[in-house]
Sequence to fold (330 residues):
Amino acid sequence: MDWKRFYADELSSDAGRAAIGAALTRRREGDDAVVTALREGGIVSFPHTTLTGSAEPLARVAASVLAAGARRVVALGVLHGGTLPEPWRSDVAELARGTPRAGELLRRVGGAFVAAGPVETPYGAVAAGPPPETGTFVRADDGVLANEFSLDLFLAVLAAAAHDRGVAPPAVTRVYVSVTRDADGSFAAAGEVARSVAPLLLDGAVCVATGDLVHYGNSYTPPEAMRGMPGDAAALTRHFEGRVAAMLAAGVEAGDLARAFEMGTSELRSDQRHLLPVIAALLGPGARADVLSFRMTDYAAINGVAPPCLVASALVAFRRSGTAPLPTAG
Fold:
């Protein structure tokens, strides 16, 4: 599946435009919980599922970015290993399997990649914000981002929200997070990404992130792991909302990154499992995660499989402790 083309087609379709327009009409003034989190230095996470599942949370975030008066945005994207061009795709796959070359490969494909230049959307251009300082685990895009799509919907909805208000959208620094867990179980790469990004979160900037926190069912989950699970979508939604809350609490509240990573990898198949440690490092100790909305979006027809085949469309506000300082570069 060419997911970048899939979402581009959604954005340009009449149905997609209608979904964005309707969601922005409902959320024109933003969302109090999202605005508060952004103004207090928190991070708000939105999904990148289909527009059916994600238009509402995307509109809540985009309108709130404008309502908060953000001068700039730092957007933390997910770098999907399956969409990478070669040779990066093979490198990430080898790293996931475990390899004696883990250290070498992590320095090559781990950490984060920074996109350059403006983005053209169906609703106008979004300028690029200032890039973070590069280093061992923060690198400029050298082709690795050619097929990445995880921030495409947000950028389009942000441009649409700004167009509706008759203003230019704030510039967006796009940082796509790849593998952050080392073979020894440490998340040192996540810490470096956070230290690089943190200086950008000053002077009226806000931080947002994306993540589809659950992938479940046919084409995602081994059959043996589906035995004993609820059979209908409503029950699965209730089950996974609780498990997502537990994963987020482990990662940002308890500081148990290993536990959160294990849940995100084996149980939830969360594509935010490598990004969550970056979020935790940026927030500092004493943070909390509030799930503001949660639904499961049906991907059975898209993936050409029998139900269930579901992806979580979750909106999460990560709130900082009032005493936790931002990490600094160096």
Q: What stands out?
A: The longest helix spans residues 233-253.
